Amino acid sequence: MPRPPAVRALAAAVLCAGALPAVSACGSGPAERAAGASPSAAAATRPAAPASPSAAALTAAQAQAALLTVADLGVPWEPTDGAATWRDGILKARAEAAPADCRRLLDALYADQPLGAPTGTYAVTGFDDGDDGAQLRHQVLSPRPADVDRALAWLRTLPRTCARFTATTPRAGEQTVRVGDLALPAAGDARQGLRVTFTGPPDGADGAEGTDETDGNGSDGSDGADVTTLTLDIVAVRVGGDALTLTDGAPGALASDATVQAVQKGVERLKAVRRAGRAQA
User: Rounded to whole angstroms, how far apart are CA atoms 68 and 59?
Assistant: First the structure.
């Protein structure tokens, strides 16, 4: 079902570097769908500038303030009740016969770490859409910019190296996984978005909720009656020396509007927090 462009927020939680993306608190570490938008492997992105000795690391309070809030969000989103059932049911997948990069991608999706394990200040918030079983997660991080750019470069290769492969999932059996570019607005200094779909025959869904929609998200049309078990958007953006990630997933189909608008709002909030910090310095 189409999703409203707005979303509702959960209070942010600040996490230690290296922790799995669960909501808890700790201190900071060291320092489109718009018309005419090109795919997220943007033709022009500014490389990471060398770190300035005077550049202040993002603090825990700033990371929390940069997360999406209730003012940014609306119906039907609500504060998350925890990890979506499809995270263990589908994303905890194995693909022994797939290329190493595809197996690495599955690990990153399950851990919700498209930029790798956090190495600096880290905050995360999550939202649930009870109408269609969707979940959106927003993370703000302050890793080294060069590390972010390396991770973005790797993500850009996946629509080619992992365009289509087979994975075995705990709840949905064998699934065809497709990876494609997700078009994004020109937000931040460098960015990459992916749309990942898991599709399989109706009798292979094994009771996974929301699998009664035909594949409209990247299928090449050769699957006939195959259904989309899960659609997941993954976005990573570098904003100066900081970064943010967004994941938006749902059983069946998923409109990209919510993801794209959340990216725009997230970048705006992070920039605003940094401006406020400079003004107070």
Answer: 17
> Closest Cα partner for 76 from 126, 130, 133?
130
Beta bridge partners of 141: 122, 243
Report whether 89 contacts 169 (CB < 8 A).
yes
pLDDT in tens, 137-168: 999 999 999 999 999 999 999 999 999 999 99
User: Residue 1, exposed/middle/buried by CB under 10 A (0-12, 13-18, 19+)?
Assistant: middle
What is the DSSP secondary-structure string of 25-70?
---------STTPPPSS-S--PPPPPPPTTPPPPPHHHHHHTS--G
Q: Rounded to two decimals, what is the model's pTM?
A: 0.75
- Gyration radius of the chain over CA positions: 18
Mapped onto helix, strand or coil, the DSSP state of residue 14 is strand
Environment class of residue 43 by beta-carbon count within 10 Å: exposed (0-12), middle (13-18) or buried (19+)? exposed
